[in-house]
Amino acid sequence: MTQRPGRRGFVSKVVPLVAASILAAIAGAGIVSAKQPESPSLSDITPIAGPLSLGHFKGDQQGCFDRAARLNLPVVDSHLHPRPFGGRPIHFSDVLDYMRNSGVLFANIYGIGQRLPVDSECTYYLDCPGVPVTPSLKNDFVNAQSLLDEAPLDIHLNVSMTFADLASPEEVLASMHLLDREFPGVFKMMGEVNLIKQALFDSGRPGVEREVIESWAPFMAQLREWNFPITIHSDLGHDGNPTKHLHLMDHVLSLYPENKIIWPHLGGLSKELHRVDPAIHIDVLETLLAEYPNLFIDLSWRILYDQVFSDPEMRDLYVAFINRWPDRFLPGTDFVASEDKSALVYRDELFVNSAVLQWIDDEAFRQIALGQNFFEIYGLDYTAPGICQAG
Question: Is the dihedral of CA 267, 272, 278, 284 positive or negative?
């Protein structure tokens, strides 16, 4: 794949934010920087006024997106869990309102890759070390029915099959067909499913053995036939060995290069990998992106800001990397909708997880934040608006 150099230049705009916590999360001072490319090719297109809507992503209603006048936030949340690991969820209609109030028009609705027992009093698995967690069909049924019940006309949702236990692949295909029979045409993808997640080691989930990956072939073939992407959580490593688990994702990619595979959390970052070397990490990801054109990376989870993007020197390296591969990234929050989380928490997660997007160039911003990558990966009939240029 040809790598694309970033373009130079910027315009800064001070933008008032809705809460002090959000203000602190975005560059510390509420400053949103928007980069202006050299080409004035869109200077004769009228900037979009007011809130964005789905209509602005249809060809006959488009204007241009003015980065200098708007918050540089995404219209896509490609990584959203509307139900928690355990306990009571936020009502689905309220989750939709959280998105509306934050300007999110498109989202992937994931189940949860690990469910606490139904009699557990915990909401989060890390609050209950030693309690077993298992993949389950429960949330997939609820999410699909919730979409049918609410049927929002102003937000586009993709519902995901999240039940799959990758360590027991012999059970996956039958359950895929079960969900398809029960909800024909509703599901559009698979994931987030776990290849290796170190946070689950104490909960009885040690990860998938390398040889088991070869047994995925039947359900991976079905995903290709249905044109379903799959989002695979796979930790890269830990502080003692930052690339210890890389061989697992590399094996998946080598066996199933025709499957659309999304690697979340900036390609395997986790709480167990605090001290990532950006040079090594970026080299690993660029090597895989060049070799596997169906590999995509999502930019979800708060730890990306806390451990990487909050450091200007590290951020600049990743911004340059993203600009070189603008068509291979998706934005997301990794918000888990437990009952104790308010709309402000969702807004804060969106702002923090999107902070890096203010720094990327216009091509990458259109592809990632305005959703062009999302539309192309999922085969959706939408087109991202262009970026306004200086006249």
Answer: negative
CA separation for the pair 348, 19 (Å, rounded): 8
CA distance 373 to 354: 16
Q: What is the torsion angle, in degrees rounded to the nearest 10, for the CA atoms of residue 159, residue 163, residue 168 and residue 172?
A: -50
Question: What is the residue type of 376?
Answer: E
pTM of the model as a whole: 0.86
Number of neighbouring beta carbons within 10 Å of residue 71: 18
Give 159-216 pLDDT, tens digit per residue: 999 999 999 999 999 999 999 999 999 999 999 999 998 877 665 567 899 999 999 9
Own/partner contacts of 13-19, CB < 8 Å, gap of 24 or more, are: 13/68, 13/69, 15/71, 17/351, 18/344, 18/347, 19/344, 19/347, 19/348
Listing DSSP states for 314-362 in one string gives: HHHHHHHHHHHSGGGEE----EE-BTT--HHHHHHHHHHHTGGGGTS-H
Residue the block writes with tokens 């918050």: 71
